[in-house]
Specification:
555 residues, alpha/beta, Beta-Lactamase, Rossmann fold, 5 domains, five-stranded antiparallel sheet, nucleotide-binding, sequence-specific DNA binding, ATP binding, Transcriptional regulator of acetoin/glycerol metabolism
Length: 555
């Protein structure tokens, strides 16, 4: 009796999940008419399952039994069994063909979808199926786990009429899955050896950056290592996958704002790709030896200010304290020579003296006039400034800066900023995770111009995870402290102050914050559809579920 209660609770819970996903009892599989791009012939799962199941295909032909194989997202990739048998005909009539989506999100409680959802074998017998169309079947679903990487690769479902003995289905299914998993491992060894041979041949005697990407492996020569340190491997794999689907041999990937790496792709027959990486910024004469150009704050501005440089009209530069507003205003003024009026001086000089100084500067300046920290001005001076920004009477190009927090709280300040012809908002440092590797090296080069420092990937990640309330100013102080204790060479995680050597279980900062934002955006764009969001993010649905729980995202 306890076993019956436990089993009933498991089914009830699975049905609740199905209802929450919006599945109805009359749902049917969604089938794709074109599966060419979806299931390339050389995918690891298809090769392993095909090699294993072809051996039992003849034996199954005379049995009332069907085997279904789905990938990790729940898409059916292969069916094996007697097409002329009763179960074979029913399977096909119910739409269980290549391309059918059997995920719990689409079809509720079923062998494949629930095995993928729970990560363990599951029996679903007759009326336990949430969808009525499957209630003539007894099913046993088993996840397929790669023995080497322990990664979920897909699931196998043994399907038979409801009167079948489920214990026999389970024994047969587990035997088949074990053989598929062993074939996966064997194929991986062969594929990695072939990929290594191709990589050695491609990288031998070349001065180019070369790397190899396999299902479980990344290999790179010395020149590629520096570039790969700045590249997120998940993004790289997603980019290569998109290129494969588009049958393209070229792609590009960003390593920071306006910093692109061109990628030439050679697909290996046994699986994997050989990539030749070309950092595009190294072709610019203004950046010697591939080092990024740093402005006064050590920032890499990218395209943020290019749109306003050299143009006429006033400019508003807004950002949190420490984001480099003053330096950004100077960049925005180019090629004009700027004159700086700082509103901080009003506190010491007095409103009347400061106002006269501003009016004099307006009349005398023919280049650019930067009015810094306007959020500190009282009402009278803000009114004058609003008029100055809104009309074109001044011969100087007016550039104003303000604290973004003050802008949110002060309607008068927003009114002045809204009058500017161009508006530039500088993001806080915590939102610039992708720029960190180049940003910190550029700033380090500015701090210690006569020394050469590099930062390991773990050091970059440790800094990127921090919250940085002081933004660039705070980062500069930390780097000055770190560099003062080193003569040159590579900065590793152990060289950083203790607060930046966080473990991965600390609150969300840096990389986790960026990942959370990306997942929330993808889920919103997909209107809560986890399959679509997972594909857009380049991850499996199981991984997406795990990250949703880990990052405490409610959907």
């Amino acid at each position: 009796m306890p076993q019956v209660t436990s089993r009933r609770s498991e089914v009830d819970f699975a049905w609740k999940r199905s209802q929450l996903c919006g599945v109805t009892h009359d749902s049917l599989p969604e089938n794709l008419t074109d599966t060419t791009n979806l299931f390339p012939a050389k995918t690891a799962l298809l090769r392993a399952a095909g090699a294993t199941l072809s051996a039992v295909g003849d034996e199954l032909a005379g049995l009332d039994l069907s085997l279904l194989v789905a990938d990790r997202s729940g898409l059916l990739v292969q069916t094996v069994g007697g097409a002329q048998s009763r179960i074979g005909a029913q399977v096909e009539q119910r739409g269980l063909i290549a391309g059918a989506d059997l995920s719990e999100e689409k079809l509720g409680f079923n062998g494949i979808g629930t095995a993928l959802e729970t990560g363990r074998g599951i029996t679903v017998d007759g009326d336990e199926h949430f969808v009525e169309a499957f209630r003539d079947f007894s099913c046993f679903g088993i996840p397929i786990i790669h023995p080497g990487s322990k990664r979920l690769e897909g699931a196998l479902n043994v399907t038979a009429p409801t009167e079948s003995t489920t214990s026999l289905l389970e024994g047969f299914g587990r035997t088949m899955v074990h053989q598929i998993e062993q074939q996966l491992l064997q194929n991986t060894y062969h594929d990695e050896y072939s990929l290594m041979s191709e990589f050695l041949q491609a990288s031998r005697g070349t001065d180019q950056a070369v790397c190899a990407i396999g299902d479980e492996t990344v290999m790179s020569n010395q020149k590629a290592e520096g570039l790969l340190e700045h590249i997120d491997y998940g993004v790289l794999r997603s980019t290569i996958a998109e290129a494969r689907l588009a049958r393209s041999s070229q792609a590009s990937i960003a390593v920071a704002s306006d910093r692109l790496v061109a990628v030439d792709i050679r697909y290996i027959r046994s699986g994997g790709e050989i990539l030749t990486l070309h950092p595009l910024w190294q072709k610019k004469a203004t950046i010697p030896r591939g080092r990024p150009r740093a402005n006064m704050a050590g920032d890499v501005w990218g395209g943020r200010l290019k749109a306003v440089q050299g143009r006429s009209g006033s400019v508003a530069v807004v950002g949190e304290p420490g984001t480099g507003r003053t330096s950004a205003a100077r960049e925005a003024s180019r090629p004009l020579e700027p004159t700086l009026i700082d509103c901080v001086d009003l506190q010491t000089a007095g409103a009347q003296v400061w106002s006269k100084r501003l009016q004099k500067a307006v009349g005398a300046t023919t280049g650019a006039l930067i009015i810094d920290n306007i959020d500190l001005l009282p009402t009278a001076q803000l009114s004058f400034l609003r008029q100055l920004v809104s009309d074109d009477a001044s011969s100087a190009r007016i550039v104003i800066t303000a604290d973004s927090h003050a802008q949110e709280a002060d309607g008068r300040l927003r009114s002045v900023l809204s009058m500017a012809d161009q508006y530039v908002e500088l993001p806080p440092l915590r939102e610039r995770v992708a720029e960190f590797p180049i940003l910190i090296e550029a700033m380090a080069q500015k701090i210690a111009s006569k020394k050469r420092f590099t930062f390991s990937a773990t050091a970059s990640q440790g800094l990127a995870r921090a919250h940085w309330p002081g933004n660039l100013v705070q980062l500069r102080k930390v780097l000055m402290q770190v560099l003062a204790e080193r003569a040159s060479g590579q900065i590793t995680l152990s060289d950083l102050p203790e607060i930046y050597r966080r473990d991965q279980n600390q609150p969300l900062f840096g990389l986790d914050r960026a990942e959370r934002a990306a997942i929330v955006e993808a889920m919103a764009a997909a209107e809560g559809n986890k399959n679509q969001a997972a594909r857009a993010l380049g991850m499996s649905r199981t991984t997406l579920y795990r990250r949703l729980r880990s990052l405490k995202i409610e959907y």
